[in-house]
Write a structure and sequence with these properties.
Elements lengths: L7 H27 L5 H31 L19 H9 L10 H11 L7 H6 L1 H16 L2 H15 L9 H5 L11 H16 L1
Helix pairs in contact: 1-2, 1-9, 2-9, 6-7
């Protein structure tokens, strides 16, 4: 069963601690690869796993803070959040959000923006950070979906991400682990996995 959260700060602290652990794991992998302990295939698989785990931690964080905000829990800076729901507690709030749906999607930026507009006054504080990073989050969602589903549809989504990066269709489709270790076009000092870590940490900070 998922945790019953009480404070935004608890969810935020748990999230940042988990991402710090994943960053540390990645640094160790890079060191082991450089020294020949890990092969290319191994580091690609480990990098893919790190990305997927980080994405899951971020999904859990968004779920936690969103549900807390529907209970009108204050932000870590003391700001009040106004909700259109009046749930009894954390799990009741989640049940109200889910309604008759089989599950709640916490990885689609468009859905989260729409949900924030529906249940939180002015979508605050979720809507603006998501709207500002909609494209990047959507691209990373496509990468995540291909790891999770490995289907023709998910591959097509991943190939769209690759076209944006290369400017054309690559002659050979890299694995997800390979892609995540490619140098960022935005910050050449980083590869995509590190850029993703930075993005979700920035989102978590802006939403808390």
């Amino acid at each position: 069963m998922a945790k019953k959260r009480i404070k935004i700060s608890a969810a935020y602290n748990d999230f940042t601690r988990q991402v710090a652990n994943l960053r540390s794991f990645d640094r160790n992998n890079q060191t082991n690869f450089s020294s020949g302990v890990l092969s290319k295939k191994q580091i690609h698989l480990l990098t893919e796993s790190l990305f997927f785990n980080a994405f899951r931690e971020y999904e859990n964080y968004i779920r936690d803070v969103f549900v807390l905000y529907t209970q009108e829990k204050k932000r870590t800076n003391g700001q009040k959040v106004n909700s259109f729901l009046k749930p009894k507690d954390f799990f009741h709030a989640e049940q109200m959000l889910q309604s008759s749906m089989p599950f709640l999607d916490w990885n689609s930026p468009d859905i989260i923006i729409e949900r924030s507009e529906l249940y939180l006054k002015d979508g605050f504080p979720i809507k603006i950070p998501y709207a500002a990073n909609r494209t990047r989050l959507t691209d990373y969602k496509k990468v995540r979906n291909h790891i999770a589903h490995n289907s023709i549809q998910s591959l097509n989504g991943f190939k769209k991400v690759l076209r944006i990066y290369y400017g054309t269709n690559p002659l050979t489709t890299p694995t997800i682990g390979e892609y995540l270790l490619l140098t960022s076009r935005v910050d050449p000092t980083k590869y995509h996995l590190l850029e993703f870590f930075d993005l979700i940490e920035d989102m978590a900070n802006r939403i808390k």
